Amino acid sequence: MIIAQAAVRTAEDAMRLIMNVPKTSPDWARPIQPSDMPAVVEMTPDMDAAVAFYGDSLGLPMRMRHGAPGVICSAVTKPSRIHR
After folding, report:
1. N or C end of the chain, less CB within 10 A?
2. Sign of torsion, CA 38 44 47 50?
3. Contacts by 39-43 with C-beta closer than 8 Å and gap 24+?
4. What tens digit of pLDDT does each residue of 18-59 get?
5. Beta bridge partners of 64
């Protein structure tokens, strides 16, 4: 949430610069309110597809933990070897 709020403030500052608002102006401190609300698209993630995709693309063996509350999967990694 903190990162999102900082991103909004950064975007507002960029818009003020584009609009040529002086930093000494009282308008610089005013929040910018959007005239239109952003579109919200609700989605239900396909967990099996996500586990399969990331398991394949990251090269990590994935195993499902059934019955563990809040745990979808765990990744088991092998220690890496440095070849010289």
Report:
1. C
2. negative
3. none
4. 999 999 999 998 888 888 888 888 888 888 887 777 766 665
5. 73
